[in-house]
Design goal:
The chain is an alpha/beta fold. It contains six helices and six strands, in the order E-H-E-H-E-H-E-H-H-E-H-E. It has a six-stranded parallel beta sheet with strand order 3-2-4-5-1-6, with helices on both faces. The relative contact order is 0.25.
Amino acid sequence: MVHLYCGEGKGKTTAAMGLALRMAGRNREVVVAQFLKGEDSGERLALALVPGVHLLEVPEKVKFSFRLTPEEREAERARNIRLLALAREAAVAPSCGLLVLDEVCAAVNTGLLPLEDVLDCLDSLTCEVVLTGRDPVPELRDRADYLTEMRKIRHPFDRGVYARTGIER
């Protein structure tokens, strides 16, 4: 089944990683692919310690998509296509219970990952798949068996408080 955590509110990645922990706790393999994110995030540091969780490689640092030069955009697009292919390859194993495609919606929305590749991936898998991101395209919303929208009511960022270590990153 496909789980989609979307919306403007905080908690999409947190919910996905919570499900990853639950699956790993049941001795099932988990594959985590994070798009448009670098390696310095708290969830990666924690999940790296959990047996059975396979974190696919991400760059050390990632620029916001609107700051990429045309050459960097093409390189990022190629990297995301490879990352999805690696995730798909790892998730077809019978031992895999869950594939997390974190920020896949943003990768699709920014043109840094073809929607068709994501849909083909979903069609080819029998494990649970979690998709996260702010504005999922209708095709991804339609594929979701679980569709959860996080709604922001209040957030410290609105008062000028930036991402805090251990909370937002």
